[in-house]
Every structure is written in C-alpha cells, then in structure tokens.
C-alpha cells in the first residue's frame, strides 16, 4: 500500500525561511504517520502574494530551497511535491518540484493553465507530466489545472493512478472545488490529492480544505480545518481497478468515434 499525505499551511509572503520551517515541521509529522509521498501547496515556499515581484524570489532547481527540502526528504525517507517560483532558462514559472526519498530532484512540473494575474508574471509550462513514485504513477497539476477536465484526463491516459494538485484556491471557490475534486477522480478512476494554502495572505484569502478523494468520487479524508495540518490516505490499486471496471470511461473513450482519428 502507498500512503500519500496532503498538507495545508498559511504561507508568509517573501519569507522563505519561515515557510520552510513550516514545511520541515509538516514533513516530520508526515513521517510519523508513515507517509511515502507528501504534497505541499502551490507557491508555499514564497507565499502566493509575491506575484507583484516574483522575479525577486525565483530560484533555480536545484537551489537553496530545494536543497533544504532534499536534505529532510533524504533524512526522513520521504518523496515530496512542493510548490515554488522557479527560474529556468531566464524565465519565471509557477512550478511543482518532485524530490524523491533519496533527496534527489527527479522532476519539475511547470503550470500549464495560468489563472488571471499569473499570466502577466509566469511563463506557461508546456505539458502535463506523470512521475513514477515508489512504483505508483503520480500525475501533477497545479490549482487552476484542476478546473480543466482535459488536463486530468490526459494524465489518466498517461497512466496516472494518483493525481496531486498543489493549490492556492481562493475561499470563494471552496464549494466548486469540492465538485471538481470528486468529478476528476470519478471520471478518470484515480485518486486525487488536494493540498491548498489556508488563511489570509496579503489580499488573498484561501479555501483550505485539503483532502484526498478516491476513484469512486468519495472523500477519503476529512478536510483539514484551520491554517496548518495534514491528512493521509492509502492508495489501493484494487479500488482503482474496481472503479474502472464499473465505470470504464477511459476504455470506452478509446472506442468512441469522437476520439478515433
């Protein structure tokens, strides 16, 4: 069985040291609960309210922040997905970095679907990605990606069994986010992990409610309340197979004249 932990935190704008201390505490708490993969919110290293000056906090990967997380990942034997502002080839991206349990950076996902003011700050990523994490196929999206059914479907068709969404969803979107999470899980027969910022940061108020939804569309953890916490869930491949047999959307899609060339 593969155990994923989704975390929730209130990040502090431009204060990487303070945010990374919170990350460290959550990693240690996740280790005590036998997690294998720990997911952190979007831009949690810097805070989300850095859009006005994101260049100032952008880092290359690897860099100081990922080295800090890599050291703890290696020490605790954890795989980590963490959101940050990344500088790559002279451009600035809203990125999620995957660090394995040996402390190595094994991949970076750069957000494809940028929301509102993000379009003026970040360069758009080029494609969705699926990673192998301890034998489980894990797709990664960031926040607004969740709202595009095509995005999750592309990850499922690429073999994803679990899709994780580091997020900074605003408080006013809380109800519809719950609909998106259940829909993306059910229509693709996958687990969906949602890790959101919480509380108030600058002009933004975040939804929180981090959780894991199963391939049957059922919420498998209680939504995290408050500004700081984590929830864990075991990924059961037999449940994935069962739900895909009962609702063979991916199989039938391949047979549909709408998708055949």
Question: Main traits of this protein?
Answer:
261 residues; alpha/beta; Nitrilase/N-carbamoyl-D-aminoacid amidohydrolase; six-stranded mixed β-sheet; five-stranded mixed β-sheet; 7 helices; globular
General description of the model:
There is one protein chain. The chain has a 6-stranded mixed β-sheet with strand order 5-4-3-2-1-13. The protein contains 7 helices and 13 strands. Helix 1 packs parallel to helix 3 and helix 4 packs parallel to helix 5. It has one domain: Carbon-nitrogen hydrolase (Nitrilase/N-carbamoyl-D-aminoacid amidohydrolase), CATH 3.60.110.10. It is an alpha/beta fold and 261 residues long. Helix content is 29%, strand content 29%.
Summarize the structure.
The chain has 261 residues and is of the alpha/beta class. Helices cover 29% and strands 29% of the residues.
List the helices and strands and how they pair.
Elements: E1 2-8, H1 16-32, E2 37-39, H2 54-57, H3 64-76, E3 79-88, E4 91-99, E5 105-110, E6 129-133, E7 136-140, H4 149-157, E8 162-167, H5 174-188, E9 191-196, E10 198-201, E11 204-207, E12 211-213, E13 229-235, H6 237-246, H7 249-255
Helix pairs in contact: 1-3, 4-5
Q: Quote the distance from N terminus to C terminus.
A: 38 Å
CATH class: Alpha Beta
Indicate the CATH topology.
Nitrilase/N-carbamoyl-D-aminoacid amidohydrolase
- Give the topology string: H per helix, E per strand: EHEHHEEEEEHEHEEEEEHH
Helix content: 25-40%
Work out the strand percent.
25-35%
Q: What does the largest sheet look like?
A: 6 strands, mixed
Q: What structural class do you assign from the helix and strand content?
A: alpha/beta
């Amino acid at each position: 069985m593969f155990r994923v932990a989704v975390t929730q935190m209130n990040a502090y704008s431009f204060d990487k040291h303070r945010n990374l201390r919170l990350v460290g505490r959550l990693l240690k708490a996740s280790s005590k609960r036998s997690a294998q993969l720990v997911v952190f919110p979007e831009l949690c290293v810097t805070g989300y309210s850095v859009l006005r000056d994101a260049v100032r906090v952008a880092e290359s990967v690897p860099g100081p922040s990922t080295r800090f997380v890599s050291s703890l990942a290696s020490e605790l034997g954890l795989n980590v997905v963490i959101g940050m502002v990344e500088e790559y080839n002279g451009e600035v991206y809203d990125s999620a970095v995957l660090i394995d349990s040996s402390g190595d950076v094994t991949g970076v996902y750069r957000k494809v679907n940028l929301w509102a003011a993000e379009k003026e700050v970040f360069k758009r990523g080029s494609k969705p990605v699926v990673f192998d994490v301890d034998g489980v196929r894990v797709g990664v999206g960031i926040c607004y990606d969740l709202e595009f059914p095509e995005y999750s479907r592309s990850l499922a068709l690429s073999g994803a069994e679990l899709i994780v969404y580091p997020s900074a969803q605003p408080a006013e979107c809380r109800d519809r986010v719950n609909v998106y999470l259940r829909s993306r899980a059910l229509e693709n027969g996958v687990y969906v992990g949602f890790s959101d910022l919480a509380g108030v940061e600058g002009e933004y108020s975040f939804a929180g409610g981090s959780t894991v939804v199963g391939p049957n569309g059922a919420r498998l953890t209680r939504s995290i309340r408050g500004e700081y916490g984590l929830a864990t869930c075991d990924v059961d491949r037999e449940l994935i197979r069962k739900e895909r047999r009962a609702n063979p959307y991916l199989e039938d899609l391949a047979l549909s004249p709408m998708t055949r060339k």
